[in-house]
Amino acid sequence: MTANPYPLGLRLAGRRVVVVGGGAVATRRVPALLDAGADVLLVAPEISPALRAHADAGRLRWLPRRFTPDDLDGAWLVHVAVDDPAAAASVSTVADARRIFCVRADDRQAASAWTPAVTRHGPVTVAVLGGGDPRRAMTVRDAIRTLLSARKGPLLTDSVEEGPPLNPSAGGNPSAGGNPSAGGNPSAGGNPSAGGKTHTGRVALVGAGPGDPELITVKGWRLITEADVVVADRLVPGLLLDELRSGVELVDASKIPYGPSRAQEEINRILVDRAQAGALVVRLKGGDPYVFGRGGEELLACAEAGIPVTVVPGVTSSVAAPSAAGIPVTHRAVAHEFTVVTGHVAPDSPSSLVRWDALAQLRGTLVILMGLKNLPAITATLLEHGRPADTPAAVVQEATTGAQRVVRSTLGQVAADVAAAGLRPPAVVVVGDVVAALNPA
Ligand code: SAH
């Protein structure tokens, strides 16, 4: 029977932590120590490639030898991650003599400190001790993680996010956006320096990924569950919108009337308005916000109005659509480059910014977005400027969704094959030897 452990959050920034051992356990432990800013000293004759990478990058100091007692000089904490019980015991004996807490991977009962199972949500860290049973701790941790991931609300929001400085005049109604608890909570996304009462909102430009709702990033997903307003594109996976809290204002950007440029102005206006009223506005865009997504224009519009913006990258269809069809955009000894272009402007149009003649000279992978309508003209231009007609080509429609369709062909035939198969947008065209790299014809 052991007494209960006493939980603590150690603030390790700049403090020496000694890790003895360089194998799998040390490899798992070191990243959290580095994340906490610890001054990590690693003592082990041999270390894993991942640990070596940390050492090479100067993130920790490595002594390539066995442990000696002096290694604990100046240490606040020791992690013993060696298999040999005698070696581990000798480290913990020295640590005990010097009153330094010692975590032991080989023998929890002999350790003076235990590492909890951890889950992190924005600024919140949950640490679970399982009464000496690490599997129990992990089970409880997993349950809490699931609970917190499903939580809709501002509790887990970062209090400080990157972005341009706030415009002090931009503060509005502190409780706008249907988020009554946020008004009294200065850490819920507001700006503490804005006087406490003023609660300026912010905008997150979030990449939703190519179609499969599971292909959004963890950060993007968290922001969706916290949003007061979501402005979504046509290409955003509908299932993601199921995650929204009740009471969230959902703006369907594809339903905004007017032509494309007026519609973009209208979207920018909605982002700025709602954020100025104090809302957390998530602008959810298909793929990555900056790949043919007009994310830059929205960032500039917000910056001009002094609204802080967080950009959350997404998995872009230009890489994911080929990948979902079994086509790697690069492959050793096959392609050392991939080029992504839009095909929405015809190659012979005066407004085209793409040098199709130069692209025809490349031997690597060419990925064309928004290219279905102009595919006959695009392939003809590439052929005319020298790309061989037998170059493998493929078109992937609605990649990573249940409706995905793939047509495999050659540069000479692909336009006809796509028309015959009746493929429709959204679709990605891939040209290059990589198309056949994993699927020889
Ligand atoms: N920002 C997006 C691209 C927007 S442009 C991204 O990074 O993916 C819209 C074009 O993207 C579509 O015309 C199509 O060419 C491509 N696209 C987006 N999603 C797609 C999908 N699931 N399958 C195939 N192509 C897709």
Automatic annotation (TrEMBL):
Keywords: Cobalamin biosynthesis, Lyase, Methyltransferase, Multifunctional enzyme, NAD, Oxidoreductase, Porphyrin biosynthesis, S-adenosyl-L-methionine, Transferase. CDD domains: SUMT. The keyword 4Fe-4S does not apply. InterPro entries: 4pyrrol_Mease, 4pyrrol_Methylase_sf, 4pyrrole_Mease_sub1, 4pyrrole_Mease_sub2, CobA/CysG_C, NAD(P)-bd_dom_sf, Siro_Cobalamin_biosynth, Sirohaem_synth. It catalyses: precorrin-2 + NAD(+) = sirohydrochlorin + NADH + 2 H(+). The keyword Transport does not apply. Residues 170-190 have a biased composition (Polar residues). Pathway: Porphyrin-containing compound metabolism; siroheme biosynthesis; sirohydrochlorin from precorrin-2: step 1/1. Residues 203-414 form the Tetrapyrrole methylase domain. Pfam families: NAD_binding_7 (PF13241), TP_methylase (PF00590). Residues 155-209 are annotated as: Disordered. This is Uroporphyrinogen-III C-methyltransferase. The lineage of its organism: Bacteria, Bacillati, Actinomycetota, Actinomycetes, Micromonosporales.
